[in-house]
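Why do we care about 3D structure at all? Because function follows from shape, and shape follows, mostly, from sequence. That is the central idea of this module. The next example makes it concrete: a single protein chain, its amino acid sequence, and then its structure expressed as tokens.
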Amino acid sequence: MSLEGMNAVVTGAASGIGRACAVRLAQDGADVAILDINSDGLEGTRRLIEETGNRCLPVTVDLLDRTAIRSAFDTVKEELGHVAILHNNAGGSLREGIRTFPKSDYDQWDYMLTLNLRQATDCTREVINEMIAAKYGRIINTSSEMAFRTNFGMTDYTTAKAGLLAFTRSLANEVGRYQVTANAVCPGVTRTPLAEAMPKAHMEQSLATIPLGRWAEPEEIAHAVSFFASPGASYVTGEYLLVAGGRTMH
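And the structure:
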């Protein structure tokens, strides 16, 4: 369904899932603001969005910095106007520094919780009151299949992504009366630059656990985001969709 006339914000949009989702929302008709700390990656996403004929506003921002987030959203509102769709996609795991809980430290936990949970709540805070006033809004959070299954040494990441689901459901309960929805997508292993940098043995091990026998493509995650963003999802809130090739059945 068309998103024509709507403005969307996608965080973590410089590559991978965020880039694919930002482009898909533009293809659906939205003007899109893209936020990331990687300005070169944002430029690549901008070019793809502008090929759709829709407006794109790249904003380089450190999403770990609350003041920077506030400034970024001020820029978005000044340049594009009211935000109808927010896709909190930014996040990540410490693939190069995985540690079990007894060996992890406070700094690692603070970083992971901020990157995967707090910055999403901070970004939501910047748009939620205007969505309530407009009696329309779509909040879409990128959680993970890891909110449902665990990998050794990833307690911090799993905790943050599960917390993001709890935030999604709680928010949906509070703002539903204003026709604002909040939902989450939970990707499995997806072919992104970060995932492809994993050791070959780890890649082969992950494939062996996926019933469909392959990784997801970023565009497949974007299909789910497109649905939650659409007018067709007006009666869906507080839900999550696993896009994981069946791996969570195990």
